Amino acid sequence: MGAVNEYFDCNKELRQLLKNTVESSLLANNQKEMQAIENRLTEIDNARNSYISLIASGGADEDALDAEFAKLYAEEQGLNERLTALKSQSPADVKGQKQAETALQEIEQTQFVLTEFDDILIRKVLECVKVLTKTEILIIFKGGQEIRVQIEK
Questions:
Q1: What residues form DSSP beta bridges with 138?
Q2: Which residues contact 62 (CB under 8 A, 6 or more apart)?
Q3: Least enclosed by CB within 10 Å: which of 29, 80, 105, 120?
Q4: How far is residue 54 CA from its own chain's centroid?
C-alpha cells in the first residue's frame, strides 16, 4: 500500500488529468462555439464597415457591393439565431457548471491515499511486482512508473 500511495502522491499528472477531464466534459460545452460565433460576427461587422468606407471613398459603386452586403446580412442573421439558441441553453449549463466546480473542488481536496488495502484497485494500477533481493522489490505500475521498496524484516 505504501508504494501505491507513493505512486498516487508522485503522480500529480493524475490530479491534473482528472481536472482537465472535468473541465472539458462539464464546463460550458457551448462556450467555445459562442465565442467563435461572436468572433465571426465581429469580422462581419468589420467587413461591412470596410465596404461602406470603400463606397464612401468612391472606390466602389454601391450597387456593385449589394450582393456582398446580402451575403454578410444572411450569414449574420444565421449566426445571431444560433447564438440566441446557445444562450437560451445557458440555464441548463449553469447546473453543469456547478457540478463541475464541485467536482474540481473534490479533486483538489481529495488525498489520493489508501488507508485500507483494496485488492481491486491494486489489480487495476499494478502491472507487476519483481523480487530483486531478499530485502528489495520493484513495483511496476501500469503506465511504466517503477518504485523500489525496501522490505522490513
A1: 130, 148
A2: 55
A3: 120
A4: 42
